[in-house]
Design goal:
This protein is of the alpha/beta class. It is 36% helix and 19% strand. It is built from 14 helices and 16 strands. Strands 3-4-2-5-6-1-7 form a 7-stranded parallel β-sheet, with helices on both faces. A 7-stranded parallel β-sheet has the order 10-11-9-12-13-8-14, sandwiched between helices. The longest helix is centred in the N-terminal third of the chain and has 14 residues.
Length: 407
């Protein structure tokens, strides 16, 4: 479906066309009409499916012609990186549709706090906020949310995983009783359904491609020893000299530093990003990565949903993630918006069970490759060891999603 078929205003359609978009992605096609009809919504869609534009576009459409200076829309997100990403997308469209916005998150200086306070007190059209920082402002009594018409919870599953459920309840208590609530989540666990039942009113449900990577991601795995990982990465990077945007995900902040040090030593300039860096440093690294001045970025899982960079060529999983869902989010950084990408996972023998779980989740077998010559002797996959025991499917019954095991 073309965006011109979605009943959006001419100014917004002009912005969409100027930014090079013509056809709506599936989540946008299904969600935008529902939001324009002012219905509550719970939408499940994988990382990289275009869900940010799915709620930003109809909200901006509603703001066309708005004259009052107040907070119309509150977007709550789990991380500062996602808050910045959404604000940047809003700003891109706002060259054509006049709308004010600000990202409210911690980690900045006193000037950031004052700017956030002014927007929350005196009004701007859209607030994008992390729960903790927003609560700090709310508790001081000057926040004016009496005119809010839209509440959006983005990456709701991640917020629950991070323990923000009580914070969300508290924030909602400051809002008018009558408002449209939109909930977006990459997964649909029981906790999300419980939250939806609590805060949404007769919501429309949209579920697309639950917990599966996009098909344009070329997935591969190598079984090797821990000590061989850096050497294999050196080989992979040397073979892909035309790749100008690569992310390496690892499980700990210490490993980020170790990997960056090793790659720089061997002539592969790279930068690391984790919660150890202050906000200014993180923004500097991300800006360098987006502009392609930084070719290789090494990051922890805290960044797997917060990095929005177009045309990432390859994701390397230095470690198999502990949470199977994080695998989908990690590799979702590449092959975004119909582009192609490559995802390579380095697996040690003790991580083989995790790969089994991932393959059950995504209902596919990840191709296993033999490491190149020069890496040394490596472990061997046991017969059938890497194959998923069964497929985990989802079927809907009475409004709930249940697992179904096919033998």
């Amino acid at each position: 479906m073309k965006f011109t078929e979605l009943k959006l205003g001419e100014k917004l359609l002009e912005a969409i066309s100027y930014m090079g978009f013509e056809n709506a992605m599936p989540i946008q096609e299904k969600v935008i009409p529902i939001i324009l009809e002012n219905k509550d919504l719970i939408a499940c869609s994988q990382t990289g499916s275009g869900k940010t534009a799915a709620f930003v576009l109809p909200i901006l459409n509603k703001l066309i012609g708005k004259k009052e200076v107040n907070v119309d829309t509150l977007v709550i997100v789990p991380t500062r990186e996602l808050a910045m990403q959404i604000e940047q997308e809003i700003q891109g469209f706002s060259y054509f549709v006049s709308a004010g916005s600000i990202a409210v998150y911690g980690g900045g200086d006193g000037g950031d706090w004052d700017l956030q306070k002014d927007a929350l007190k005196n009004g701007t059209d859209i607030i994008i906020a992390t729960p903790g920082r927003l609560l700090s402002h709310l508790k001081l009594g000057y926040v004016n949310f009496k005119n809010i018409k839209h509440l959006i919870l983005d990456e709701a599953d991640r917020m629950l995983d991070m323990g923000f459920i009580d914070d969300i309840d508290t924030i909602i208590s400051y809002l008018p009783k009558k408002h449209q609530t939109l909930m977006f989540s990459a997964t649909m666990p029981k906790s999300i359904r419980q939250l939806a039942h609590k805060i949404l009113h007769n919501p429309v449900e949209i579920s697309l491609a639950i917990s599966k990577p996009v098909e344009s991601v070329d997935q591969k795995a190598y079984l090797i020893f821990e000590a061989q990982k850096v050497n294999l990465i050196k080989h992979l990077l040397a073979e892909r000299k035309n790749y100008d945007s690569i992310i390496i995900f690892t499980s700990t902040k210490k490993k980020v530093s170790d990997i960056v040090g090793s790659l720089n030593k061997y002539g592969f300039p790279s930068r690391g990003i984790s919660s150890n860096l202050d906000q200014d440093s993180r923004e500097e690294v991300l800006m360098g990565f987006r502009s392609k001045r930084i070719r290789i970025l090494v990051a922890t899982d805290v960044m797997s949903r917060g990095i929005d960079v177009k045309e990432i060529n390859m994701v390397i999983n230095y470690d198999v993630p502990n949470d199977t869902e994080d695998y989908v989010h990690r590799i979702g950084r590449t092959a975004r918006v119909n582009a192609k990408g490559e995802a390579i996972t380095l697996v040690t023998q003790k991580e083989v069970p995790k790969i089994r779980e991932i393959e059950q989740l995504i209902e596919a077998s990840i191709p296993k490759l033999q490491p190149p010559d020069g890496i040394g002797q490596v472990p061997k996959w046991k017969e059938g060891e890497h194959k998923p025991k069964n497929k985990r499917r989802f079927y809907k019954t009475k409004g709930k999603f249940k697992k179904k095991n096919n033998k």
